[in-house]
Amino acid sequence: MTDAASGPGLRPVRASRQPFAVRLGLSARFHALCARVPGLRLIARREGEALFDIVSGFVQSQALLALVELRVLHRLAEGPAPLAALAGPAGVAPDRMAVLLQAGAGLGLLAQRRGIWRLTVRGAAFLAVPGLEAMVRHHPVLYRDLADPVAFFRGETQPELAQFWPYVFGAGGAADPALAQRYSDLMADSQGLVAADTLRLVDFRGVAHLMDVGGGTGAFLAAVGSAHPGLRMTLFDLPAVVPGAVARFAAAGLSDRVSIAPGSFRDDPLPQGADAISLVRVLYDHADETVAALLRAVHDALPPGGRVVVSEPMSGGDSPDRATDVYFSVYTLAMQTGRTRSGAEIARMLGKAGFSDAQIHKGYRPFVTSVVTATRPIVEDVQKSV
Question: Do 226 and 375 fall within a single domain?
């Protein structure tokens, strides 16, 4: 039996070296048998649909992008409409719009009855969930970077996405206020959802002073501050994002409870005084050596018994996750500076930085965020001397 994936220049896989189930998967005769046997037919059909979903994923995401950019979903949010009422404002010929609408229905976003199109619950949720639309509208940059995926994974391309994140190179990298604002706006659109899930996973009761490092314009602190009225807070981030943070805290009525410390954790020491420090969607933007240095700085900025909270989408590690190990891992690879890590890997890095009692809190929606918490030991100096 030869490997179905074999081709010119590839050595056939010896089926005898594969587990039994894989040998069946490589067997054309077994697939023919599955098509004839009712019980196996259902399993084969499900596997076939899953495989085709993978194959057609790029087209699905492009159809979604078209629905967003042509504002089809937005118009249907105002009420059901016929084909002509959607095609005209979008500048798309009716026959071509019909194909797009049918694709939207196939994705479960739209439905049609007697020539009238409407949003489904899924389509309505897409518009309502913070950050989803902004993420989709940002995707063309990533799509261009993946136009030649073989060259991309070989490291032979210069990803455009890397130019979108100048802030990762320190304060000097974010000297352009427009670029810094572009990043902050994109993150703020989804930060409310991240904050909500983080607050479900982490109990901030008992924390007197929380410092959010790399917190952008303060969306996370605004959410935590609203949930915990007695909490004092500090935002530490690049000078370019300070004006946006000042405006956000003023609008939320939090100005008297939040101090803003401009700086770059790559270039400047972290302020002292907080008994908890949060790193929300920060680590996966940076290389291992930068993360290791940051975690040591966080450790040193905290008092004994102080807590660190890491919240971001995380790899499934030994149990790969479709959302984080496909989407976020490729995204951070295109950024050229970061990496999507598993909760276990982050816990190990926290341990090396001097933290103890690392705990992994898998998110309700791992594609939004998961959390790892750890504590600076109270008796660490005694332990080191023993």
Answer: yes
Cα–Cα distances (Å) from 224 to 54, 200, 256, 366, in that order, read 38, 11, 15, 20
- Return d(Cα 231, Cα 365) in angstroms, integer: 27
Residues 100 and 25 reside in one and the same domain: no
| 343 and 372 inside one domain | yes
Q: What is the CA radius of gyration of the chain?
A: 25
Q: Are residues 270 and 173 in the same domain?
A: yes
CATH of residue 72: 1.10.10.10
φ, ψ of residue 99 to 5 degrees: the values are: -65, -45
Phi-psi domain of 9 (left: phi exceeds 0; alpha: psi -120 through 50; beta: other): left
Same domain, 262 and 316: yes
Determine contact, residues 351/358, Cβ cutoff 8 Å. yes
Q: 235: which strand partners?
A: 212, 260
**How many separate domains does the chain show?**
3
Residue 360 resides in a domain: yes
CA distance 292 to 252: 34
Do the domain assignments include residue 3?
no
Q: Would the pLDDT of 23 be above 90?
A: no
Last residue of a domain, one of 23, 39, 55: 55
| pTM reported for the whole predicted model | 0.80
Whole-number mean pLDDT of the chain? 86
Are 35 and 28 spatial neighbours (Cβ–Cβ below 8 Å)? no
pLDDT band of residue 10 (cuts 50, 70, 90) is: very low
What amino acid is encoded at 314 in this protein?
M
Q: What is the pLDDT of residue 7?
A: 47
Residue 216 lies in a domain: yes
234 vs 240: CA distance, rounded Å: 16
Same domain, 305 and 376: yes
Give the number of C-alpha atoms closer than 13 A to the C-alpha of residue 61, restricted to the C-beta side: 16
Boundaries of domain holding 333: 154-385
305: pLDDT strictly greater than 60? yes
Q: CB under 8 Å to 369, separation ≥6 — which residues?
A: 194, 197, 198, 280, 281, 311, 312, 313, 363
CB 336 within 8 A of CB 165: no
User: Are 227 and 289 found together in one domain?
Assistant: yes
Q: Are 191 and 219 in contact (CB under 8 A)?
A: yes
Judge whether 237 and 187 are in contact, CB under 8 Å: no
- Is residue 295 included in any domain, yes or no? yes
The secondary structure element, H or E, covering residue 183 is helix 177-201
Distance CA 246, CA 276 (A): 22
